[in-house]
Amino acid sequence: MTSAHTEPAAAHRPGVSGWSSRAIVTVIVAVLVLFFAIPMIWLLFATTKSARRLIVSNPFAPGSAGDLSTNWSQLFDFQDGAVTTWMANSALYAIGALAITLLASIPAGYALALTEFPFRRLLLVLTLVVMLIPNTALVLPIFLELNVVGLIGSPLSVILPMSFFPFGVYLTYIYFSTSIPRDLLAAARIDGCREFQVFTKVALPLAAPIVALVAFFSFVQNWNNFFLPFVMLPSSDGYPVQVGLTSLLASTPAFNPSSAGAQSVQLPTLALATVVSVLPVLIVFLVSQRFLVAGMTAGGTKD
C-alpha cells in the first residue's frame, strides 16, 4: 500500500531532465534577445555622441543632447535637405501604393472566396505561385515593361509595381473564406442587395481587422523597398529614404575614405539617419497594434 501511494506522488515531481530542458530554452531565448537587442541599444546611444566619443567612450553609455542636436542638424543639412526630400518621397510611394493595394486586393480576395466565376481556381493558384517568386526576380521584366511606356524615373515606376501585393489578396481570401457567414451574405442578396452592395455594406465593414493587417504589411514592404526604387529612379531627387541611405553611406569617411570633405557624414549622423528611416514604421505599428492583433487572429476559428 505504501508503494502504491508514493509512486503517483513521485510521478508528479519535476525531474532533472525537465528542469534542464527549461534552463536550456531560457538560455537560448536570452542569447537571441541579447543578439538582437545589443545592436539596437548601441544604435540608439550612437545617435547621442560625437564621432570622437563614439570611438573612445563606453559603447553603451549615453551621450549628450548637444551632440544629438548637432547630428540632427548635420543630417538634415546634408545636400541642402536631401533627407527631408527622401522621407517625403518614401511617404508618397508607400501611401500611393498602399491605396492601390487596398482597392485591388480586398475586392479580389472577396471575389475569390465568396463568388463563383470562370477560372476562379486558376487565379487562386496563380496568386499562390506568384507569392513564391522573389520580388527581385520581377524587377527586370517590370523595368523593361515600364521603359516601353516611358515611365522610368517617374513616381509611377515605383508606385505601380509596389501596389502588386498577392500576399494581401491571399490574406483577404483566407479571412473571407473562414470568418464571414455565407448565410449573412445570402440574406443581404434576398433583401435586394446587388453584389457590390453586399461587399461594401456587409462584408467590408466586418473585414476591418484584415484590411488593417493588409495595409500594415503593404506599408512596411513599400517603405523598406530598396532594390525596385534603386533600379527605377536615376535621380537622387526621386530617391526614397532607403535608397538615400546609400548616398549617406558613400559620404561617410569610415566606409569611403575618399569622401572626406565638406559634405562628409560622420558615423553618429549615419546612425541617426538609420533610426529616422524606421521611425514611421514604428509609429504605424504602435498606432495600429490593436487592429493588427485582431487581424492576425481573424480566421483562426469558424463559427
UniProtKB/TrEMBL annotation:
> Keywords, A to Z?
Cell membrane, Membrane, Transmembrane, Transmembrane helix, Transport
Identify the GO cellular component terms for this protein: plasma membrane
Could you list the residue ranges that cross the membrane? Answer: 23-45, 91-115, 122-144, 156-177, 198-220, 265-287
- Membrane association type: Multi-pass membrane protein
* Transmembrane found in the keyword field: yes
Q: Where in the cell is it found?
A: Cell membrane
- Give one GO biological process term: transmembrane transport
Q: Does the keyword Aminoacyl-tRNA synthetase apply?
A: no
Q: Which domain of life is it from?
A: Bacteria
Q: Which Pfam families match?
A: BPD_transp_1
Tell me which residues make up the ABC transmembrane type-1 domain: 87-288
Q: Which InterPro entries match?
A: MetI-like, MetI-like_sf
Q: Which family does it belong to?
A: Belongs to the binding-protein-dependent transport system permease family.
What name has this protein been given in UniProt? Sugar ABC transporter permease
* Species in which this protein is naturally found: Actinoplanes siamensis
